[in-house]
Amino acid sequence: MATKTISLETDAYDRLRAAKRAGESFSEVVRRASFEDAPLTASRLREYLKSRCSGAAERYLNSVEEAEKNDTHPDDPWA
Q: Model-level pTM?
């Protein structure tokens, strides 16, 4: 298989290395990466936890989803 050499800034390399699982190559990390620009939501968290077989209780996942529905952004995020 052909290979390519790439350069990464240190912060990007650190993120890639942190995502790497035992015995996994960097190519495998990149292949399973998700590059969505969509905002993080409780629904996405719920799907992530379910897909990773996290064992998170359904009740907890429901409460996270409910919290998202009731969440409002502050007028002044620095207050």
A: 0.44
